Amino acid sequence: MELGLAGQADALRKGEVSSVELVEASLESIGRQESLGAFRVVREAAVEEAREADKRLAERERLPLLGVPVAIKDDTDIAGETTPFAVAGDHRPAERDGEVVRKLRAAGAIIVGKTTTCEIGLWPFSESPEYGAARNPWNPEYTPGGSSGGSAAAVAAGMVAGAVGSDGAGSIRIPAAWTGLVGIKPQRGRVSGFPHTDPFNGITVWGPLARSVKDAALMLDVLSGSHPEDVYQVGRPVLPFVDATRREPGRLRIAVSYRTAFGVSGKLDPEIREAVERTARRLTELGHKVFPADPDYGLVGLGLVPRGTVGVAEWLDSMPNPRPEARTEVEARIGRTLGKRLLPLARKMDPYLRKKVGRIFRYADVVLTPTTAQPPLKVGAFDGAGYQKTQSGVAAACPYAWTWNVLGWPGVNVPAGFTGNGLPIGAQLLGHDSDEATLISLAAQLEVVERWTERRP
User: Fold this and answer.
1) For the Amidase domain, which residue ranges apply (predicted)?
2) What are the extents of the domains in the chain?
3) What is the DSSP code (8-state) at residue 142?
4) Catalytic residue check, 73
5) pLDDT in tens, 1-35
């Protein structure tokens, strides 16, 4: 699949390729690379849906992704399939599509399968005892990240040109960093997670993973818009995000920060620091004002832990006869006790935290940080580890992404190079309230000179 999402959609409109050809090629690629474990479910029904798409194309129907194969993460409902979110249990097939799937279908996309994740999205790896491990196409001994690692692996390996992930503490941006992709965490409320009206109490959002900024922006345009029952309502942008990829961002003020939030350890790998510094130099060469400055995070961690732990408890409690790992159950137990008591306080802190951290935007338009502190972890690095060991280990590896989930603001991972042994490194562009367009425009400008779309596993 050399063509990206936009390229495939254009080729379909011009009649240069059929949807059946694209979908069959996608399914062949998934089967040929089955050892990567990117998919939990592969939908053979996608071929028949592609035939219908070809009929609609022949009748001159035009939709943004009509006939284009895509993938969704296994935390998202699609009618007729279960949504175990990597937890063993007596799961029942979903009766109707979730809002993410409804919007993809409304745009004409063909969903070829559901991708591998970890239990309830807890970790920056995509492994579970029940459903196996997703592996990194750049080196299968390493994880593609998590919890949207299956989606990232599917795109990086060329099985699909774009996939949907979800991000509650970096779960789109971390896999994007570790597989060399663009991953967008949208503004809270931009993309509906319905039937989840307040997913993980406000920290989780759904968004795109793609090789190029244009493809990610196109998918974000398709996904954008609130459901009437959503707690957070943002709606569609005034202009399509794909338009932001075509315009110059102007001269931006970019603050470079390596600070982690209070109470979070994380020794920054020197190769990652060098990659971020090189990206900063590139941004300077592009005419931006780049300078060191740190957001004042304060007690932002108090906004994460109650939301996350309660969210895990709520998701687990909604499952029929779940049989989770012990460490997942520990997280849920914390949510049912301490997290539940602290959740009202976490919500009350939102305006204070946004004001405190938001002061950085008085003198910066964008914040540039590492996406992770460490390069990709080995597959199985935390097999058999208890809750405390896993939690402390992954917190040290990935201390940079989760703060923006608490704030609800947008962030974009951009590829930033490679480690000495050939594993991808990412940097993240972090923006202010509802300002995805600035991040997308800046990322598109950077892509032109960095040419990361040309690098393949």
Assistant:
1) 21-439
2) 5-454
3) B
4) yes
5) 479 999 999 999 999 999 999 999 999 999 999 99
Distance separating alpha carbons of residues 400 and 125, to the nearest angstrom: 16
CB contact at 8 A, 72 and 164: yes
Q: What is the pTM of this model?
A: 0.98
pLDDT at residue 147 is higher than 70: yes
Residue 266 pLDDT exceeds 80: no
Q: Which is catalytic among the residues 73, 103, 185, 214?
A: 73
- Beta strand 253-256 with 366-370: parallel, antiparallel or unpaired? parallel
Q: Does residue 262 register a pLDDT over 90?
A: no
Measured CA to CA in angstroms, residue 95 lies from 79, 98, 194 at distances of 5, 10, 14
What gap in Å lies between CA 137 and CA 126, rounded to an integer?
Answer: 13
Whether 289 is catalytic: no
Q: How far apart are CA 254 and CA 256, in angstroms?
A: 6
User: Percent of the chain at pLDDT above 90?
Assistant: 97
Go through the chain and tell me how many residues it has.
Answer: 457
Give the mean pLDDT of 209-238. Answer: 93
**Annotated catalytic residue within 18, 19, 166, 171:** 171
Question: Which of 393, 316, 305, 310 lies closest to 120, judged by CA?
Answer: 316
Clarify whether 29 is annotated catalytic.
Answer: no
The yes-or-no verdict on residue 313 having pLDDT over 80 is yes
Angle between helices 326-334 and 387-397 (to 10 degrees): 80
- Residue 236 scores a pLDDT above 80: no
Concatenate the DSSP letters of all residues of 184-241 into one string: EEPPTTSB--TT-SSGGGGT-EEEEEESSHHHHHHHHHHHBB--TT-SS-----SS-H
The two structure tokens encoding residue 381: 């690095």
pLDDT digits (tens, 9 = 90+) for 432-446: 999 999 999 999 999
Q: Chain-wide mean pLDDT for the chain?
A: 97
Question: Catalytic: which of 18, 147, 226, 257?
Answer: 147
The CATH class for the domain spanning 5-454 reads alpha beta
